Predict the structure.
Amino acid sequence: MHVLSVSSLKGGVGKTTVALGLASAAFNQGLRTLVVDLDPQCDATTGLGAIGEFAETVADVLQSPRHNVVHRAIVPSTWNKLHSGKIDVLVGSPRTQTLDSPSPTIQEIWRLEVALAKIEADYDLVIIDTPPSVNGLTRTAWVASDRVIIVSEPSLFSVVAADRTMHALAELRRGLTDRLETLGILINRFRPQSTEGDFRVTELREKYGNRILPQVIEERTVLQSAQGAGRPIHGWPGESATEIALVFDSVLEYVQQSLGQKNPSRLARNSRKVLRLNRIMRGQSLDDVLKLEANESMNEIADILGLGEGEEPTK
C-alpha cells in the first residue's frame, strides 16, 4: 500500500479536485483505492458520494486509531456502483478543525500512520486530501505519506504558497521521516492564452525546474460538474472530460513510476528512530522535536535515541 498526500498551503487552488481526479484514475485502473478526507470542509467526502450522518469519522480515528474505529469510519463510495472495483472514503468531519493544532505532539502526529497500518492489506493506494495549512492535520498526513503532490494555480499567491509548502516538507523530512518525498508541484486551473498564467508557469519552472510536474491541468467546467454530481471524471460524458481524464491518468502514472516496486510494510517503515522518539518524546510538540533534530549533534541524537556506541541512526 502506497500513500499520497495532495496538499497546498493556499485554499482555492483546486486541491480536492486534483485528489478526486487521481482517485478517479486509480479506480478506473482497478487499484483498490482509499481517499482520506482530512480537510474540515469535507469536499472529498461529498465528491465521493458519502453523504449523511456517520457514527465514526476521521476525527474519531485521529483521537483513537483503534481497529474497530478505523473500519467504522471507512464507507464505500457511490462510485462503486458505476463499475467493478473498490474505492472507499475515510469520512471527513468538520470536527477535525478542533484537532488542527499548530503545535501537535509527537504522539498525535503519528496517529494516522497507526490507523493506516491496520488496513494496509485492504488497499493499493491511499490518497489524502489535506487542509490548506501547515498545522497538525497536514503534518499528520505528511508523516503517513510516501509522496506529496503540491497543487498550485498559476498566480502570485500560489507561487508563494508552493514555496512555503516545499520548505515545510523539507523540514519535516529532515527531522522526522526520511521516506517522505515531494513528488513535485502540479499546476492546476491553467487558462490557455492567459498572459498572467503563462508568466507564473514560467516563474515556477525557472524556480523549481524538474520539480514541476510535466502535466498541467487546464481549468474546465466539466471538473466541477462531475464533482458536483458525485461522479468520477473518468466516464463523464464529453470530449473535454476524456481529455482531462487522460491528464489524470498521466499524473497517476508519474506517481507510480516514482514509487516503483517498493512497497514495505507500514509498521516496518516506522524506523527505530521514530519509534523511540514516539515513546520518549510523546508529550513534546513536533516543533520542539524538529528543532532538537536540527540543532543536536549526531552523538547527542544517538544518546536521545538510545543507540549504542558506533550504531548509526536508522534512516
Notes: The longest helix spans residues 239-259.
